[in-house]
Amino acid sequence: MNHGGLVVWLKAWADQVNSEKDFISDLDNAIGDGDHGFNMSKGLTAYLDARAVKPAETISDEFKMLGMTMLSKVGGASGPLFGSAFLSMSKDTAGIDELSVDDVAKMLSNALEAIQKRGKAAVGEKTMIDVWHPAIELLKKNELTQEAIDGLVNATIPMMATKGRAAYLGERSIGHIDPGSYSSGLMLKHLLTVL
Ligand SMILES: Nc1ncnc2c1ncn2[C@@H]1O[C@H](COP(=O)(O)OP(=O)(O)O)[C@@H](O)[C@H]1O
Ligand SMILES: [Mg+2]
After folding, report:
1. Where in the chain are the domains?
2. Is the CB of 161 within 6 Å of ligand 1?
3. What pTM was estimated for this model as a whole?
């Protein structure tokens, strides 16, 4: 993946989040406060606006622009979490023009660490970690597919939330897709198409 591929990835993700904004917020309505689609759309739109004014020139700067925008423009849990993830990716890609699948897997792995450092969630707590972690393991083995990503997102349905706002619902959080896992799944699906 070069810088052009990265931009294609991020724009496609932003477009899909924008078009599914209400659906994603509805997912959050069921187990949270109904703002996740709105939050992600706000952050990604602000990023597209920022890069339309002053395009980033490197992979690292592109991630930095997205990360800073998510951190500064998005409230809720997801802004700081995605923000730290993309800032970690910016740090990892400094001086690099082309990323192999292995580089991407390593970069995502470090970004996941940044998310976990900030959010303190582990696998099985019905958060975006439940998509990020197993997806990275599959990517490392070259086994990540669109269907596998759908499977990971759907696997959050029977889980009970023990982190994030959904944890307040206890057992009532069971039976719904985790919204952050859904938006992370969209991110990974579009990444996969450019790799
Ligand atoms: N501690 C955490 N670690 C990882 N992800 C989390 C954590 N808390 C919440 N999330 C993710 O954030 C999503 C909710 O994001 P959002 O609705 O934008 O923020 P908020 O919950 O503050 O309203 C959840 O679906 C979950 O995937
Ligand atoms: Mg919310």
Report:
1. 3-194
2. no
3. 0.98
